[in-house]
Amino acid sequence: MSSCNVRSADEDIWTRQIFLTQLCSQEPSKSGTAAAVSIAKQQPWQLSVGSDGIRVMMESALTARDRVGVQDFVLLENHTSEVAFIENLRKRFKENLIYTYIGSVLVSMNPYKDLEIYTKQHMERYRGVNFYEVSPHIYAVADNAYRSMRTERRDQCILISGESGAGKTEASKKVLQYYAVTCPASDHVQTVKDRLLQSNPVLEAFGNAKTLRNDNSSRFGKYMDIQFDFKGAPVGGHIINYLLEKSRVVHQSHGERNFHIFYQLIEGGEDDLLRRLGLEKNAQQYQYLVKIVRKALSVIGFTDDEVEELLNIIASVLHLGNVQYGGEDSGSSYITTDTQIKYLARLLGVDGTVLKEALTHKKIIAKGEELMSPLNQEQAASARDALSKAIYGRTFTWLVNKINDSLAFKDDSFNSKNASVIGLLDIYGFEVFQNNSFEQFCINYCNEKLQQLFIELTLKSEQEEYEAEGITWEPVQYFNNKIICDLVEEKFKGIISILDEECLRPGDASDITFLEKLEDTVGGHAHFVTHKLADGKTRKVMGREEFRLSHYAGEVNYNVNGFLDKNNDLLFRNLKEAATQFKNSLAKLMEILMSKEPSYVRCIKPNDAKQAGRFDEVLIRHQVKYLGLMENLRVRRAGFAYRRRYENFLQRYKSLCPDTWPNWNGRLVDGVSSLVKHLGYKPEEYKLGRTKIFIRFPKTLFATEDALEVRKHSLATKLQSSWKGYRQKIKYRKMRQSAIRIQAWWRGILARREAKRRREAANTIRRFIKGFIYRHQPRCPENEYFLDYVRYSFLMKLHRSLPKTVLDKSWPTPPPALIEASEQLRKLCMQNMVWKYCKNINPEWKHQLEQKVVASEIFKDKKDNYPQSVPKLFVGTRLNGEDINPKVLQALGNDKMKYAVPVTKYDRKGYKARNRQLLLMANSAIIVEEAKMKQRIDYSSLKGISVSSLSDGMFVLHVASEDNKQKGDVVLQNEHVIETLTKVAICAEKINSININQGSIKFNVAQGKEGIIDFTSGSELLIAKAKNGHLSVVSIADEIMEIISVRNKKKITGLFFDFSDCPSPQLKMMDES
């Protein structure tokens, strides 16, 4: 991110809406626009916004500022008010908007909950987008640094600072994750990405610990360089660590823990591993597991042996802490835990005797001679702790170097001069505790240096931009903390130099003597005070062992207890002390940062309880002060709050002026000048530079933006109507052209079809006529088409007019060549219809048809009233059980009755008519008179049955008279003669024994005597004894029966079918219908 390009947070956020002003040509009202600006200045518009819409869109309009605040503190109207600053933070935090800008500085609030703003889709949204075009985000800072590195070919760095628990480590992780996802990738690049990401859990395990303020607090400062090739792909990296809190190895405050790796090893290590290391599991629970760290080490490139050695050293620190001492009378000490020494010797690979001596003696060199002096119990414990801290500190340094070797790009063909670097500084923020010691002194000194660098670079970038634009630079009054930095780091006179001198001088040096020397050396400094030098009011809040420094962020009291021990290296007196080492490494860090283009991320912790949604105003005000955010904002707002290039400003607001709308063709500066004059800007509100317009007050920008919001409504209406009209015209033209093309194409198809049809018709007619001429000749090319057509026509006609029932005798007349085939088809068709009909007949209907077939065989063409019987169904019986006397039924017993019908019996002598009942049994026919069975005729004695050919109902049963039981033939008459005789013939199996006589019937009256029945035709049925002694029967004439038959046929049309051509004799009777 270029520090010389300082712009407001909303500078490019409206570029998505510029198309509204490009497509509309409506001129604005001069008076209307000016009035809108005037009203907006007096009372800003308040427009509603969606509650849970896309945050980017919600923040993309300045009209949402009343609800969610401004996304850049530079645009705060009352920028000098800390209350307004914190209130803006509160508004945004309430809406889960944790990021806010101060110019190019990102302020980040720890939400203490997961937010769905770190997905791959969000990364793509910020990728390659202008810094202010979307809402504030850590991805915007990362992407802007990356694009600046690519385009300007200048190294970048991102400085992340804040209190413990403010989210610094998470912010650095998000930056690394962003580069891992969005940067170009290859196999090697992917390996580097994985190692960069996996370096975090390793360094967190060895450098982070649980504190009262943070469960995963970084207890060291980290600066990471990410190296990119000319394609923009990460190809390597390098890590520098600062001020590891080694004292945590041997001492932790109440409620805090040691470094994570110790708990990971004890809680998550396998039993075999712990057995080899001489460790045992304890009951403490911990949120990390050693398996994750071992996997990360494997990804980074550690071998199994190196991991094993690393764990050995960590275990040795644990064992070293369990070394206990005893005291002798002489004052010297000795080790009481020999088992720990054995473990230590094996794990560290040293001689146990030498190690034991080193922990209980010190080496003194006097006049070139080495002497071993025993240590007392307290000194030995201090030496043990010093060794523990040294081992852990050197292990951590070795671990960082090993990671650097893994991240280093080793391709010889790669030119490092063409490489670009993005640095990532994750360092502690300004710390003020109830009891501040040596660590807080170093941390706050580091923040003083970073604040000094930040102010210098900010003022420098501001001044360079003003000078480049030709605007007079107005010096900014700010607190120059160089005086404090000199107080701490000045040679021979600074606090660090005095501390080193006190550590190295012979004699009994102590923390109190160090404090006294400070009073003597720097006691007159305006930013230094002790209890001794303070006034009475200050002494009440200061301890006698404290000194106070007035930092840029406020006053801090430091307790000198432990300063010498923490600064001293008891193992190596010839090495530089800790404070001096830190000062030198910090100076190198400043050189690195000065050589790069910086970006800043300030992290704020909303509360100490780590609760989501809780906003602790007191705590946040404390952090705002110690992070120097108000000072930062004051520097940014010392001149003009907002600046923008002419083309962008004119492009956005040109619709507010009739002279610039819809397009401005002159010089850009003239267009902007006309625009601001039309808007009513006062001279003190803005300045015109060479390429940019500078606006001093945010209210001026807000009024202009509100006027644009009013203007957008008319623009949107005009745009909608123009676009709808344009779209409909285009649609109509396209539809019209399409219709014309379709019509032409279809007309061509129709014309071609018609021409083809006519040609084919002519050819067909020609062939047909020629075929007709040669139709009687043998088949030849001239007549084959005609003959085929004739055959085809017949078959199609036959297909359309096939008989629907077996009674349908119609059949098309075939051509001569198809007579034989037609006859065969007719037979097949009839057989198929008969087969289908028979297949669908149920058993009851079949029995009915069988009886009808028998009747047909007997009476067809023989008896006149037979046609009238055909449509009438034969019934099972004409008498029910109630019609027959119970005595008769009792007499019949189990003999089954098959048919019963009322008949009239004529005596054989006087032919007197008597009502009787005819019962057909299984083996005989019985004539019943009321309750008396008058005559039983066995079927075996039935010689035959005689009936006339006329339409009367008379019939005679001829009975054999060999025995005296039979009285002779029986003369009977009933109305259902066809049905009755058919039943008798079937039951008696006498189908062929029924005689149909013409004129008369002779019958046996008694033994040796005959009777005669004469039959004649008449208009009505008459039965009487004639004068000649015969029985005379006058039946209905044939003409009358014919009329009745025709009427019956009309009633039953479709009930029966003609089976006269059917080969089955049982179905031929159906032809009678």
Structure description:
Helix 9 (187-207) runs antiparallel to helix 16. Among the domains are: 470-560, Methane Monooxygenase Hydroxylase, Chain G, domain 1; 644-738, 2-Layer Sandwich (Alpha-Beta Plaits); 783-839, no CATH class; 850-997, Pleckstrin-homology domain (PH domain)/Phosphotyrosine-binding domain (PTB) (PH-domain like, Roll). Residues 1-63, 283-289 and 1050-1073 have low confidence and may be disordered. It is built from 35 helices and 31 strands. 45% of the residues lie in helices and 16% in strands. A hairpin with a 3-residue loop joins strand 18 and strand 19 (692-695). 36% of the residues are buried. It is elongated, with a radius of gyration of 61 Å. The longest helix is centred in the C-terminal third of the chain and has 76 residues, at 698-773. Strands 23-22-21-20-26-25-24-27 form an 8-stranded mixed sheet, covered by helices on one side.
